Amino acid sequence: MSRSSSSYHHGDLVTALETAAFELLAEQGHAALSLREVARRAGVSHNAPYHHFGDRTALLHHLAEAAMGRLLAAQQQALERAEGADAVERAVALGLAYTGWAVANPNAFAVVFDPAVCVPGQPTGEMGPLIAENERLLAETVAALAPGDPDGVAAVTSWAAVHGLAELVIAGHVPAAAAEPAIRSLMTALSPAHGG
Fold first, then answer.
1. Residue 195: inside a domain
2. Quick check: helix, strand or coil at residue 128?
3. Which of these, 43, 11, 41, 7, lies nearest to 26 by C-alpha position?
4. Are residues 103 and 41 in the same domain?
5. Residue 160: which domain range?
């Protein structure tokens, strides 16, 4: 069913383009994503995306920022649901939210961590605060789990392990069902209260 640009109000076009871009991203990844293809999927003129994104790089930045926002929201919601639980359970909830979102959205996850899109140490103005908030969530959750880790080694270890696990599940090297016991084992090992 085709959509017409006349059916969009000024403020709705960006949403329509983003929706189309995420649909294409889910189907094919970001390497071949083009503004023309996004316009075609959204049912608007091929010039329409350029008014909002400027070029393909700006589109990829926007997708990475939106995807990072969604990943962050999934983790925040998991911690809200785990409120009142002990430190290990909260860390497990955070890790499962991270891997779960990544596995459910592998191409969106890939664009967030593509160093050509989100250059390490040089985030866009929109991405910077999202990264900072994600790092804060991780640091606070792991600090409660492993107090006495002033250098943040436990936080880096947790992120590296959970991120790597997500990548392995996405690639099919590890079954999705292995994620929870693996994350639980890691978080338990990091907690002095649980013998870590």
1. no
2. helix
3. 41
4. no
5. 63-190
The confidence score (pLDDT) of residue 54 equals: 87
- Residue 174 in contact with residue 168, Cβ under 8 Å? yes
Q: Which of 120, 81, 121, 99 is nearest to 170 (CA)?
A: 99
Q: Which distant-in-sequence residues (6+ apart) come within 8 Å of 18 by Cβ?
A: 62, 63, 66
The tens digit of pLDDT for each residue in 47-75 reads: 888 888 889 999 999 999 999 999 999 99
Distance between CA 60 and CA 53 in Å, rounded?
9
Q: How far apart are CA 41 and CA 23, in angstroms?
A: 9
Query: What total of structural domains would you count in the chain?
Result: 2
Q: Are residues 74 and 159 in the same domain?
A: yes
Amino acid at position 175, single letter: P
**CA of residue 43 relative to chain centroid, distance:** 27
